[in-house]
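dumping this here so i dont lose it again. seq + smiles for C2R
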Amino acid sequence: MSPVVGIVMGSDSDWPVMEAAAKALDEFEIAYEVDVVSAHRMPREMIAYGEQAADRGLKVIIAGAGGAAHLPGMLASVTPLPVIGVPVPLKHLDGMDSLLSIVQMPAGVPVATVSVGGARNAGLLAARILAAHDEDLLGRMREFQQDLNDQATEKGKRLRAKVEGTAGFGFNSGK
Ligand SMILES: Nc1c(C(=O)O)ncn1[C@@H]1O[C@H](COP(=O)(O)O)[C@@H](O)[C@H]1O
């Protein structure tokens, strides 16, 4: 299967965070590619990646970077594809620098920014974007959401069982 999602990051040091996006796509059997593409360190290659992504068959780009994270926004400036930005937390500033670099895009150049370190949600958001035009994937996303619902309900049951005597006020109580 040729990749439909491009997962790129400013450095291989981002992989421990970005791997969660790949795992989420694996769960939905969505084909992806991974690469290091840095706006700062390899600007020409970064522009080429963004310019060619749609013609190569990619549908969504997930871009993660730490610190002064210009990669997601720069990619969004040269591709018509949706770009999801993942702020990668580094040693200093806890990812706030990266978050603010990615989230405050000027009007006209959107980047869908997830939480600091939120690569799993980036993968799931990519899956939802693809599911909008794929009935089978849409069905699997609904099942995934039902699983989440069931797990949360279970957690409530377990908590109520543990905290005896306070089980009466939760909206799940009585189930
Ligand atoms: N923010 C960017 C960009 C960019 O935005 O183009 N390129 C690399 N980086 C970030 O630099 C951090 C340190 O990289 P190294 O670990 O290679 O020194 C990484 O988090 C990377 O995403």
